[in-house]
Amino acid sequence: MLGRLVTELGPWSWWLLGLLLLAAELLLPGVFLVWIGIGALATGIISLVLWESAVWAWQIQCLVFAALAVAATLLGRRFLSKPDTQTDEPMLNQRGASLVGRTATLQEPIAEGRGRIRLDDTHWSVTGPDLPVGTKVRIVSWNGNDLTVEAD
């Protein structure tokens, strides 16, 4: 049945596939099906010209479609990807990174490389050299879970 439909529609079958993929992109947003749909529409344009040609067999059409879909995806991602933008709040949503350079007092000793400090209203796990309670420390880095400190 599908083969008969493609034969009856001719080059318009690629247009139909492309429009169905673009419509599916509206239902399942993710900006991926649009590139495959563009590849199908481009294959449809080529099919309008080459449909009667002996070299334009269905296998060649599928290869051209795959190549155009990949090319459209790569070009779309390259030109529509978000550029690195500068912001006036580079540490927004990176609270630990914004603490680098601050000083604090150890609330628990650093024993075997691990301890705790209190900064503002939050207790933080810290790593660093073994130090006793009450030592002033400077935060030198943040790895996502722990702050790394050194004696101040």
TrEMBL record:
Segments traversing the membrane: 12-28, 57-76
Matches recorded under Pfam families: NfeD
Keywords, sorted A to Z: Membrane, Transmembrane, Transmembrane helix
Protein localization: Membrane
Transmembrane is among the record's keywords: yes
Superkingdom of this protein's organism: Bacteria
Membrane topology: Multi-pass membrane protein
Gene Ontology, cellular component aspect: plasma membrane
Stated name of the protein: Membrane protein
Organism: Ciceribacter naphthalenivorans
Taxonomic lineage of the native organism: Bacteria, Pseudomonadati, Pseudomonadota, Alphaproteobacteria, Hyphomicrobiales
